[in-house]
Amino acid sequence: MSRLFDLSGRTALITGGSRGIGHAIAQALTGAGARVVINGRSADALAQAAQALRVDGAQVDTAAFDVCDSAAVTAGIADIESRIGPIDILVNNAGIQRRAPLDQFADDDWHALMDTNLNSVFYVSRAVAQGMLARGRGKIINIASVQSELARPNIAPYTASKGAIRNLTRGMCADWAARGLQINAIAPGYFDTPLNKALVEDPVFDAWLCKRTPAGRWGRLEDLHGAAVFLASSASDFVNGQTIFVDGGIVSVI
Ligand code: NDP
C-alpha cells in the first residue's frame, strides 16, 4: 500500500516554493521521497527555503525565474532538465492577491494577477509538458482556490483567475490525458500565509472565517500534504481533470 504513495526516484518542480503553500507542498513531496526543485523570483529566499527543506537526506534544488516571463520560463525549464534531469511532477503554485473594489481596480493590478495566477500556469505547463509527453508520463497539480467556485467582495479579478485555473485543469486533461499525463488541481481554503497577511491580522475576518468554515478553523499548511502526495503519486493514476477542495468544507456548506 505505501508504495502507491512512494515518490522515490521522482523529481518535482514547485513554482513559488520559497514560502507558504508551495513550501508546504515541497515538504510533503520530499517526505514521500521525491527530489524537489523550488522556484521563485528571489534567489536568496529560495536558498534559505531549500536549506530548511534539507532534512532526513531530502534532495532539494532551486531555480530562480519569473513565471510570468514566457522566455524566462522556457530557459528555466531547459536549465532544470539539463542540470537536474526530467521533471516528473509539476506543481503550479506561484500566485498573488490584489484586493480592491472592482470599480476601482487598476489595469496594472488586473494584469499582474492574470500574469501570475493564470498566464504563468500556461507557460510553465507548456514547457514542462514537452518532456512529459515525450516520456508518456507526468503529473501536473495546479493550485486553485475556494475562489475557483465562490466569489467574495474586493477580489473579483483573483476569483476570475482561479476560476480559469479550474477550467485550464480540465483543458489540460482533455489535451494530455490520453498521452499519459494526469492533471488535477488542489483548491485550498484559507491558510495563514504571507498572501493572507491582511486577513489573518483582521479579527473581524478571523471570526467570520472560523464561523463560515464547517471545520471551524483556518487551514494548517500540513492539511495540504495528503492531497499533494496523492495527486503526485501512482495512487491517483486514473484521477484526471479534478479539483480537490482542501477547505474544511467551505464550498460544500452555505
Ligand atoms: P505566498 O505569498 O506565501 O507565496 C507565494 C510564492 O509565489 C512565493 O514563493 C513567491 O516567491 C512566489 N511567486 C510570486 N510571484 C512569482 C513569480 N512571478 N514568479 C515566480 N514565483 C513567484 O502565497 P501562498 O503560499 O499563500 O499562495 C500560494 C498559492 O496558493 C497561490 O496560487 C494562491 O493563490 C493559492 N492559494 C492560497 C491560499 C491561502 O489561503 N494562502 C488559499 C487558496 C489558494 P517570490 O515572491 O520570491 O517570487
Automatic annotation (TrEMBL):
Domain Ketoreductase: 10-189
Superkingdom of the source species: Bacteria
UniProt entry keywords in alphabetical sequence: Oxidoreductase
PROSITE patterns reported in the protein's UniProt record: ADH_SHORT
UniProt entry tagged with the keyword Cell division: no
Record's keyword annotation contains Electron transport: no
Similarity field: Belongs to the short-chain dehydrogenases/reductases (SDR) family.
Record PANTHER family: 2-DEHYDRO-3-DEOXY-D-GLUCONATE 5-DEHYDROGENASE, SHORT-CHAIN DEHYDROGENASES/REDUCTASES FAMILY MEMBER
Protein name, as recorded: SDR family oxidoreductase
